[in-house]
Amino acid sequence: MESHIKHSVGGTTLHTYHPCRRIVPYRVYAVIHTCGIVALMYHHVHSLLTADKTLITSLLLLADVVLAFMWATSTALRFHPVHRSEYPERYVDKPEEDFPKLDVFICTADPYKEPPMMVVNTALSVMAYDYPSDKISVYVSDDGGSSLTLFALLEAAKFSKHWLPFCKKNNIQDRSPQVYFSSTSHSWSDEAQKLKVMYTDMKNRVEHVLDSGKVKAEFITCDQFRGIFDLWTDKFTRHDHPTIIQVLQNRETDMDNTNTFMMPNLIYVSREKSKVSPHQFKAGALNTLLRVSAVFTNAPVILTQDCDMYSNDPGTLVRALCYLTDPKIKSGLGYVQFPQRFQGINKNDIYAGEYKRNFECMGIGLDGLRGPNYVGTGCFFNRRVFFGPPSNFILPEIDELRPNQIIAKCITDQDVLALAHKVAGFIYEHNTNWGSKIGFRYGSLVEDYYTGYKLHCEGWRSVFCRPKRAAFYGDISRSLIDVVNQQKRWCLGLLEMAFSRYSPITYGIKSVGLLMGVGYCQNPFWAFWSIPIIVYGVLPQLALLYGVSVFPKASSPWFWLYMFLFFGAYAQDLLDFVLEGGSYRRWWNDQRMWLIRGLTSYLFSFIDFTLKILNLSTLGFNITSKTNDDEEQSKRYEQEIFDFGSSSSMFLPMTTVAIVNLVALVWGLYDLLVWRERLVLELMLASFAVVNCLPIYEAILLRTDGGKLPKNVCFLGVILTFVLIVLGYVVIK
Ligand SMILES: O=c1ccn([C@@H]2O[C@H](COP(=O)(O)OP(=O)(O)O[C@H]3O[C@H](CO)[C@@H](O)[C@H](O)[C@H]3O)[C@@H](O)[C@H]2O)c(=O)[nH]1
Ligand SMILES: [Mn+2]
């Protein structure tokens, strides 16, 4: 297959891979399941032509076509999954001069949803990588344009001069100070105790400034930086302000407090904003950083990080370099992606916040083809990847932005600073290739998935690196409404991609081949899940109420086909999950969340997308809140109690479907006892739905806490149920 995965163990090999053992049985099963799907389609078409229930059969056919398509996309990902190992200890034997430089991009956008201390911890954790510090530059992009964030980073620069030598001398593994100081698993040395006091002081100062909402003159201790805060004039808003670039730490002049090594660069960038110009959300921020960093340091390796994703392993960079510097593969290798992993997930992960399928199963599946998709954070890029296909370099407008340009001047040089400001301006991108052929790609709210996909289409490869110790840890949402809203945004961005001229189903299959193209279709068509989920969630249940069968009777051979396809698909999904280290309970919750998403995020993204196409609305990027201030909510999360909490119309379809299923099940069981009607499949389906909906019934009927389902949603749900039952009479009877 691909040349980079063929290459195997040798004396100085820095990495190896092996295909997963399940490949052969999976492929055999794929053939059998495909035959089952073909038979089912035959059955539907046959009944469409012969029976009189045309509408019902057409709906079932539509639902099954979507299910079959989605099954095909996951089967493509099961075709050649691989696992990899790398040997960083062999890398560090190299002479230090050969170590490449690294530019880290950290994005933040709102000091209230993304607390500045969180950004500080993320920045410190990567500045402290086990690597020559003066080869690292950390750029923080602040789309919130907030002086509070800048203030926090100033404090971080000061603290880092103590934190870095401490970590390196004592070989600390947790290099996010917040994590290290809240850990109870070690005893504290005097030095650590002193640092902890220093850290707590800093945290208090930053939080105090955040509470007061303004950086007052008395908080600023460095005269050098006093002037910069004057830029926040009365006219300054986050949507309309000049570029602010501030070098907070300089690797050419700043040393650590023990005077043994030079410190990494730390640079604050808030690009120019204007109400009249589209700012392209995170992709726009990352492209600005690409240019500003090219002017300042132009490192050949780039790491992109969300501000809540701190480094959990100081050896991660070297691990990524095992791939990025391997002469056998480096020329075509675009990026090395680490999975997104999360902290603070409750034991059974009730909201499926782990996203195992998305961030792990999909990663290993694509890795055996051309490489994993880009997930927005925890990804080390080869800078060259942003300038056209491997074989066809696309020149940026000015020479200073070329990926191989050598930097001769210091970052404090006036010309250099002036150029950096220029490339961060909002008109800079007009009439250039930025966002289309160069840099991160515009056109989708999920800039990450879209960019990775476009890079693969250009011929780049990527590698999935999944060490045992998580390389990065991020934050999760603790309330259901946040979870489904985040997914709705993803889904919208994915729909933009599915219906663009670069849709993976057309352009993708042509550019990256059948398996990879079909595999890439999985996420963009997520919203389509809502079709089978609604059809199977409502139609057979209404039929049950009127004693009409929509599925084959238990005596028919077609009954067994349904059983086989349902249990086969579920069992394989469970296997995927468990073989990659998941637990059974987490899988159960994951499949429940899939049903919930089908009736919330997926469904509403369809609606919003239609409105956008009709020009009735525009899409925005609602940043996920990363604060966990609500104590009650956190407590409920710990206890694994669902939090519906807000009176959102988003929960209405889900509530309605839950009620419909309960009514249908009760009625169906009564029928079974009294009339001995045998609608076995319909009954099984309703029971399955009811078991899945248990937390919803509880939230409607039994709970009194703040996380219960709001009354108006329940009330509307009951009304809608009646409407559906009446409608069912018209359609079914
Ligand atoms: O206009 C914006 C909007 C967002 N961000 C940053 O983008 C990151 C992701 O935003 P978040 O609200 O955390 O979104 P999530 O849905 O949690 O993020 C996931 O989905 C995004 C869109 O696909 C990816 O960019 C992320 O890497 C991925 O973790 C954060 O660091 C934000 O500060 C910006 O810099 N500018
Ligand atoms: Mn996030």
TrEMBL record:
Annotated SUPFAM superfamilies: Nucleotide-diphospho-sugar transferases (SSF53448)
Q: Where is the active site?
A: D143, D448
The parts of the chain that form a coiled coil are none
Main localization is Golgi
Q: Name one GO biological process term.
A: cell wall organization
Q: Which InterPro entries match?
A: Cellulose_synth, Nucleotide-diphossugar_trans
Membrane-protein topology: Multi-pass membrane protein
Hey, what's the signal peptide range on this chain?
Answer: none
Report one GO cellular component.
Answer: Golgi membrane
| Positions bound to UDP-alpha-D-glucose | K113, E114, D143
**Keywords on this record?**
Cell wall biogenesis/degradation, Glycosyltransferase, Golgi apparatus, Membrane, Transferase, Transmembrane, Transmembrane helix
Q: What does this protein do?
A: Thought to be a Golgi-localized beta-glycan synthase that polymerize the backbones of noncellulosic polysaccharides (hemicelluloses) of plant cell wall.
Q: What is this protein called?
A: Glycosyltransferase 2-like domain-containing protein
